[in-house]
Amino acid sequence: MQTKQSRGGRRLPRFVHAAVVISRAGTGTGLFLSTLFLLVFPAQLVSFGILDVMDTWPSIAVALMIVAVFGVLAWAGGANRAGALSAFCCCALVAWFTVRYVVKDVTFSNEPSLTVLLYALLSIVVAGGLISLAGFIVMCILPANMLRGRGMYARKLVAEARKQKAAILLGFATIGAGLATGLISLDPRAYNRVVTITPQGYQAAIAFWAGFDIALYNATVRQELDQHNATLVIYHPPNIKTTAGRTAFIDMMQQWNASCPNVKLVMSIQGWVRINNTGNDAQDFFYNTFPYDGSAEGVVSWAKDFMDIAVANNLTNFAGVNVDQEAPDKILWKDYGIDIMPNATRHAESVAIYEEFFEWRRVHHPDMLVTSTNGMKAVLDGFDGDDDMQVIDRANILDVHGWDEIAPMIYRCGDGGTPPYGDLPRPKPGDEGKPSSWVYYQFKFLQSALVHHDGNDSRLGIYLGITNLSCYGADVEQYDRNGNFVGYGYDQLVKDALIAKHFGSKIITIFILNTAMTGPGPDAFSMGGVFDSYGIDFLDRFMADINGPGSTNPFQIYLEPDFDMIGEYMLDMLYNLDEPSWLLVVVIVEGLIIASAILLHPTVKSGVLVRKERA
Fold first, then answer.
1. Pairing mode, if any, of strands 264-269 and 318-324?
2. Domain extents in the chain
3. 203-559 belongs to which homologous superfamily?
């Protein structure tokens, strides 16, 4: 019985035998990861009621391609060229997906054991893919696979195929169906689903991210803001820890009150971070960085001062403070040696600081607002009740209980492409311009998280933007995926605001009121102020469109696959596996995969058969 010989009587090189084992180990690990990420985790999204089964179809489609196509061929035929090439494709796809949606956000400092395990599994996948590719190349250049004798081999294959015709047809049909379904389903045009938007009948309030200087706005703009009782969330307010800054703040608030008595102002506090301990706040805190959990002490100190100063000076148009939670400035680490990486201990300390502040606010200034502007990643903790994503994102959102509004930056239209106004590159993915279904899914996600965490969605808010960039461009013609003209950038802004009303957002905050550049130089983008972009009558038209007659009429939007949201959730579920019991399960499963790969080694399998025959 010839067990170690290939066709033609020639022995396969030991490298090929070893390659088959490593290939199957990599493929098996890839199938395990893809099943976990693309099937198990999305199933949890469905169980939470965030998405329905069809909403998770993008991940299911990729799973079909990996498992039904590359995985089956790779595992079943790892000892031949077709299997080796399929193993490479399977491992490459799993590695890309894992790096794209998972590994890029995993940090050793926060979850060391899980991180080591994940990188170990990914290394097995990458090694399996590379070895499979090398095995494929080696098998292609073996003498047994040269053109000589190819005719005899082909006739043998035809004869064997006739015997197994039914099985082969079924296999090709299954693989073909999986590949076709996966590829077609990832095309938005094939994801032919619509959802009906029914804006609620309440009168939504309007707010803007805005510069503080009243001279930025002419008399007509100020009159429009006053007429519609607008709220301005002020970025870069004066440093009230200095005498000059305090005087400038009081003076500007009084000017606003005299010119626009119906306009309320909310101060967005910078991420003040302690860098010294001299007792002089002007020297002890670093200014001009976004708030994160490491700046809680400074944020709370400035917030208290703003509130006290407003009351002491009878600034009745002062409505409260905002905390725009984003990534901290790298200068903190480079110039001052401040640790800005995710840190669970620091985060716990920041929670205590904020909780103390909210109790202080309840006692001293119960009518003043405190709102959070943030990304969506940390909101995921609303589903499982822990704080791992907030630690990773360095944001205090659901793990403190005093925010009056939680308003993510749902910036559908961004500064990508050609300056100064960006391009409309759809269907190219990225921040340059997303479909309205992306806004819908973000709201659905936020609402579900708040309901799970709070029991209601009363704190739900939104920041829509960026005005006059890409898909919100004032003069940019807009078309749906079927080529139908659907208006201009203004019309898209109205539609997204109506989606916000569908979910019950009481305040629609728009980024931005005054035109501002993203930076210096010719490559900067122009973030267009709403009046500069859409006309001096913008607010009259906008408020009529979202609150006036016909504003509650239902309309439909196309739903398009949104893989990024599922990817964010995968990371949260992955961190939930960082428990000894779950880590042990993963290790056992991986051990079984590697053992199977070894037992299916040609020499091992044949040796077992020989021993059985001799027995």
1. parallel
2. 7-191+566-614, 203-559
3. Glycosidases (3.20.20.80)
Q: What are phi and psi of 187, to 5 degrees?
A: -85, 120
Q: CB burial class (10 A; 0-12, 13-18, 19+) of residue 117?
A: middle
In sequence order, which residues have a C-beta less than 8 Å from that of residue 483 and are 6 or more positions away?
none
Task: Count other C-beta atoms under 10 Å from residue 181's C-beta.
Answer: 17
Phi and psi at 80, nearest 5°, equal -125, 175
Comparing CA positions, the residue from 294, 303, 301, 255 lying closest to residue 279 is 301
* Opening angle at CA 521, ends 518 and 527, nearest 5: 25
CA proximity to 270, closest of 246, 244, 302, 294: 302
The stretches of 80-203 forming alpha helices (DSSP H) are 81-101, 112-141, 150-163, 165-185
**Helices in 313-435 by DSSP H: which ranges?**
331-336, 344-364, 381-384, 388-393
Pairing of strands 193-197, 555-559: antiparallel
Structure tokens at 542: 């906008």
The predicted model scores a pTM of 0.83
Using alpha carbons, list the distances in angstroms from residue 225 to 278, 318, 527, 548. Answer: 43, 15, 19, 17
261-296, pLDDT tens digit by residue?
A: 999 999 999 999 999 999 888 789 998 779 999 999
Dihedral of alpha carbons 103, 343, 321, 212, sign: negative
CA of residue 78 relative to chain centroid, distance = 36
The predicted-structure confidence for 552-591, as pLDDT tens digits, reads as follows 999 999 887 666 667 777 778 777 777 777 778 888 988 8
